[in-house]
User: Fold these one by one.
Assistant:
Number 1:
Amino acid sequence: MSWLDKIIPNAVRSEVKEERRSSVPEGLWKKCVKCEAVLYRPDLERNLNVCPKCQHHMRIGARRRLEIFLDEGDRKEIHVNVEPIDRLKFKDKKRYRDRLSAAQKSTGERDALVAVEGKLFGMPVIAVAFEFNFHGGSMGYAVGEKFTRSAQTALEKNIPLVCFAASGGARMQEALISLMQMAKTSAVLERMKQFSIPYISVMTDPLYGGVSASLALLGDINVAEPDARAGFAGPNIIEQTIRQKLPKGFQRSEFLLEHGAIDMIVPRGELRGKLAGVLSKLTHSAMSPREEERQIDVPVLTETPAVFAALEGELVVADDDLTGDSTLPRSEP
Amino acid sequence: MNPNYLDFEQPIAELEVKIEELQLVGSDNDINIGEEIANLRAKSTRLTEKVYSNLTAWDIVKVARHPMRPYTMDYIPRVFTDFDELHGDRHFGDDNAIVGGLARLDDEPVVVIGQEKGRSVKDKVARNFGMPKPEGYRKALRLMQLAERFSLPVITLIDTPGAYPGIDSEERGISEAIAQNLAVMSRLKTPIICLVIGEGSSGGALGIGVGDHLAMLQYSTYFVISPEGCANIIWKTSERAPQAAEAMGVTSAVLQKLGIVDATIEEPLGGAHRDLDLIASRVKQHLVEQLRQQRELPVETMLENRYARLMSYGND
C-alpha cells in the first residue's frame, strides 16, 4: 500500500479499493460501487460517470472533468510548465523524487492540478481541476503555484475562475512548503474578491485537510456534487479523538448544505448549466443558457445482454472470474 | 525519571539532584562544600550545553511540547502591559483555546492573539488542550479586523497541537474559519507579526500565522502534519516519529533556510522554561524591533511586501 492509500480516510480508501476491484473488467462493462448495477461503459460515460440507476457520482479524472465542463473547442491548457520541486530531498521508504516520477508516469500529469482556459456557454472562464490519482490530489508547491497562476490569469483577463477540488490535503513530502500553499492560494483568492472577479469552488469526492481549509471553502459560491465527502479532519482522526461513532451522512454534501458551508448541491449533469447561469448573473452578462441546454442528454440505457444479466447475481463473488475476456461480450451490441 | 526533564536530559537531571542533596547537607553542616557545589554546577552547565548543541529534530519537538514550556498566558503579562482580554466570536461562543485582547507593547497599543494549551488539568480541559474550534478562529478574525479599524498592530503567538478534529468543529465549519483567516490576514491593513512559541501544528497554526514577519523560538517546531501522524502514514507506527521529524524539517533552522521563517529567537540554555523572564525579554525586544521596522514602511508597501512574500512560497 502506498503512503497515499494510508492518508486517505478508511471510508474513502475502502471505496477506492472497491472501485478498482469492481471494474468488471477493464472493458465495456462497469459495476456501480453503490447499487452494483452493471453498466455499459459508453452509457456510463455519456451519463458523465454517474450511475444511471442510482445516481451515484463516480470519481472522474481532472481532464475528463474539464472536458465535460467546458464548451467544446476553444480550450487551451495553461501554466503547463509548473513542475513539482523536492526542496527538502524528502525520503522515507522511498525518495519523494521517485514517488513523483512514478505518479507522473502513471497519470501522465506533471502534478495534481490541470488548468484550462476555455468557454462556458460562450463565456470565457478559467477552470482548474484536481487529479486525485496523482498523490491523492495533495497540494504541494506545484498545485499551489498552478492554482495561484491560474487565479492571476483570471485577474489579468477579468474572467471567472472555477475550481473542481478533490484532495487528501496538503502534501506531506513538501512539509511546510505545502502548508504555505494554503496561505498563498487564499491570498490570491482574496485579491480576486477585491476586484470582484467571481470564483466558484466545486467540491467533489473526496476533499479534506489543507485544500479544504483554504481554496476550496473560499468560493464566492461554494457548490458540491451529491454525496461528496468533504471536511477538515478525516473521519478516522475524528473517531480516534472523540471515541465515538460518527453520525450517518457526516461530512457529506447534504451535511455541508445543512450546516451552511455550501450554497447548493448540483448533480454533475447540471453543473455546466447551473454554473453558467450563476456566473452570467454575477458578471452581468446577458447570456443565460436556455433551459434545454442546461440539461445533458439523458442516455438511453443499453439493455444488459442476456449472458451478462445471468451473471449479475453472482458478480459480487465472481469479480475475479470476470476479468478474462471470454465470458464478456466485447462487441458493440 | 525526573518528569521535569526530558529523556535526553536525564544525565543533567542526575547532576541537579546531586547539587540539591549537597545543598541540603550544606545547610545543616559546618563542612564547606561550596566549592564542590560550584564544580557540579559548572559541570551541569557544560553538560547541558553539550546536550543542547546536539539536539535532533525530534528532541526539539519534545522541548517544544515540554510540560513546563512557557505558554501564551505566561508571555502576555511579561511582554505586554495593560492587557484587556476580549471574548467571543459574536456568532456562536467563546473559545478559550485562543486568547486575544488589547494590550500595550512598550506603551504602544496593540492587539495580541495567542493559542493557549493550559497549565493545570482543569485549565487544559477548559482550553481544549490548545485545540481551537471555529469560534476561536472567528474570534481571532474579529479582533484582527478591530485592530485594522483602529490602526493597531497585531501580534500572534502560535502554540497548538492543531485545530480541533471533532464533530462540532466540522459542523461549524472549521475549514472555512481557517481559510477565511488566511484570506483576510493576507491583506489586513495593519502590521501582523507572528511568533511560534511552542508547537505550530499545520492549518491550526497557520490560521493565526499569516503576516509580515514570522519568527520561531529556537526550540519551537512548525509542521504540516505531526511527526507521529507522518510516521503513522508512512511506517504505520508512530515510533518512527523521530525519522519523520528529520525528513520533514520541523525546526526553525531548516525553515529559515527554506525562506519560510524570517528569524529565530535564541532560548536560554536548556530551553525557554529554564528562564522565563529571560525569554520573555528577548521576545519583547524582538517584537518591538519588528514593529518598528514595519511601521517605517507606508502601509501600501507593507501590504505589497506581504503579498509578494506569500506568492513566493515554494519558489527557489
Note: The first strand of chain A starts at residue 29 and ends at 31.
Number 2:
Amino acid sequence: MSFQIKEINPSTLQVSFSGRLDMDSVAKMWQPCLLAVTKYHPKQLSLEMKDVDYCDGAGAALIQTLQKQQIDTNGSCSIENLRSDFKNLLANESDQHAKLAAQSLATIKLNFTERLGHIGVNALDDLRDNIIFLGSLAYQLYFVLLRPKKIRWLDFYRTIEEVGPKALPIVALIGFLIGLISTFQAAPSFGQFGAQILMVNLVGLGLVREMGPLLTAVLLAGRTASAFAAEIGTMKINQEINALTTMGLNPIRFLIVPRILATMLITPLLEIFLIIFGLAGCYAVMAALGYSLDAFLNQLYQSIHTADYIGGLIKVFVFGWVIAGVGCLHGLKTSSDAQAVGRSTTQAVVSSIIMLVLVDGIFATLYYFLGI
Amino acid sequence: MSETIPIITVENLTTRYGNKTIFKNVEFSIYPGEIFMITGVSGCGKTTLLNNMIGLLEAYSGSIKIDGDDITSSSENKKLSILRKIGVLYQGSALFGSMSLLKNVSLPLEELTELPPDAISIIAHNKLKMVGLESFCDYMPAEISGGMQKRTAIARAMVLDPKILFLDEPSAGLDPSTSAELDQIIMNLSKTLGITFVIISHDLSSIYNIGQRVIFLHQGEILAEGDPKILQKDKDLTVERFFNRESVS
C-alpha cells in the first residue's frame, strides 16, 4: 500500500492510493499522508482510488479525515474511482460519523452558565429528596411508635444481629488497641512530670466523651451504612421497592424503619463495649508500668462523671440514626446502571462520615454551652 | 366487548423525561376481563406507560382512570385504594430474596389485612396452587427457576384478588416452552377469575397466543390498535413489518 502526491495545478492536489487500505497499512501512512496534504493546503483535493484493491473501516476513516481537513480549511475534496462496495462502507462510516458528531454536539451544547444551572437544579433536587426522605422517615417512626405491631420485627432482629454481635470483634479490637496505643504514647511525657496515673484521666475521659462514640460510629459507617446502601440498592435494581410501592406498602416503613431502630438501639451498646476494651488496653499499659487494678479503677472513678457517660451515649444514639439514615437514603437513591450499587455504597460511607463529623461538632458546641 | 364500561381509560396522556417527550396524547381504553397487550420496539415507552398506569411515574399531562378513579390526580390515600385494585408482575419478578415463596405471597395479606395467620396461609397456598407451585412453598426464590419465579410473582400479584393484573414483559428471559406455560396460566386465570390483564410484551408468539387486543406504540404515539392477527396485515408498513417479525427501522 502506498500513496503518491501530484500537484495538478496550483489549486488542485491529487493523492493517488494503491494496494490495500487496511488497518495495518493505514496505521503506517496516516501521519505522513495527513502531513503531506496539510503542507500543500490545496483548494481542491482529489483522492484517486482506482488502484485500491481493498478498503476497510480504517481506510474509510482516513478518507473521511482528509475530507474533514479540507472542509475545515474551506477547501473541497473529491473521491475518484472508488469501487462501489467500498463506497457503501464509506457511506456507513459517514453516517456513523454524522451520528457521532450529532451526539458530541448534543453533549457540548451546554455552555458554562447552563452547566452551572444544571448543577444548581440537581443540588436542589437532591435537597428536596433529602427533605422528603427525612419527613417521611419522621412520620413513619412516629407511626410505628404508636403502632409497634406494624414494625417488621424479623427485620429488626436480623439487623440487630448484623449490626451488633457481628461487629463486636472489630469494635473490641479497635477499642483495645486505641486504649493501649494512646496510653503508651502518653507515658513518656506524663512520666517526665511523675504524673503517669493521670493518663487514666486522659484516656478514660477521651474514650467516654469523644473517641468511643466517634470511633464506634466511624466503624459502623464503614460496615453498616455501606451494607444498608448495598442491600436496599440491590432491592431497588431488582424492582423490589417498586413491588412494595404497588402493593401499597411504604418502603420506608417496611425497609428503613426496622434498620434505623435496630441501629439506634445497638450503637450505644457497641460504644460501651468499645470503651470497656479501650480501658482494658489502657490498664494493660498501666499494669506494665506497675500500677495496681485498684489504683487504676480509683483514678477512673474520680475522673469520669455520670454526665460524661450520658453525654457520650446520647451522642452515639444520634450517630446510629445518622449512619442508618444515610445508608438507607443512598440505597433508595440507587440508579439502575451496573455501577450504581458500588457508587451508592461509597457515597453512603463518605456521606455518613461527613455527617458524623458535622453532628459531632454540633454536640461539642452544645455540650460546651451546657457545661457538660 | 361484552362490557361497555372500560375498567381503564387513558386520555390525552403525555409523558416526558426532562425535555424529551416519550409519548404524546396517548388514548385507549381497556375493558373488564380483557387480555390487553401493549407492544412496540425496544425503547418506545412501553414500560414508561406501565409505570404511569400503576402510579410509579407521574405523567406530564392527561388522565388514567382505573375503575373510575384517576390515578394521576389522586391523593396518596386515594392512590393506595386504587393500588389495592391492581397487581403488578415486574420484568425481573421482584421477589424478596430473604423470604420463602409462601412468605412472599403472604406478605401483602400480612401487611394490608387483619386476617389471622391461618387464613393468610390458606390463601397464599391457594394462590401458589393456582400457578402450580403448591409443593414449593418453603423454597427460597434463589432455589427455583426463572419461570417459577415469574409464577410466584403472579401468585403474589393476585393474592389481594385485584381486578387488574399488569405484567411487564412476563416472558422476558424465559425459554419458549416456559413462556407458553406462563401464557396458559394467564389464559386460565383470565377465564376462571375474570381478571383483566394488561401485558407489556414484544414477544409476538405470546401476543398471538393470548392477546385479545393490542396497541402498537411507535415514536411516541399509538400507531395501531386491534386484534394482533389482523394487524399482521395492516396497511401501515411499520405495523405490518413489526407484526411479521421484520425490521421496522
Note: The beta strands of chain B are 8-17, 20-30, 35-40, 61-66, 69-70, 86-89, 164-168, 196-200, 213-218, 221-226.
